[in-house]
Amino acid sequence: MAGRKRTQKPSWEASAIRALRRHMKLSQGELAAELGTRQQTVSEWETGRYRPRGASATLLTIIAERAEFEYRARKEKGERGKEEEG
Known about the structure:
Helix content is 47%, strand content 0%. The chain is mainly α.
């Protein structure tokens, strides 16, 4: 993937997931269907019990961008101190 610029991946927090779902006017079950996961998983993300990782986090980011949902990426531990490129 030479020449491809790496972008900061958002760390999806409970409140952002809930806000995205409400922005899209979806139930937890409907968002789960969009992501190919279970309603219980979305519920656990929204309560902060677990955080989406890997493909789920990537799909949330893609869905948010397509829904024109404004969110802010939270810096991961290793990203602290780095300037956000823009």
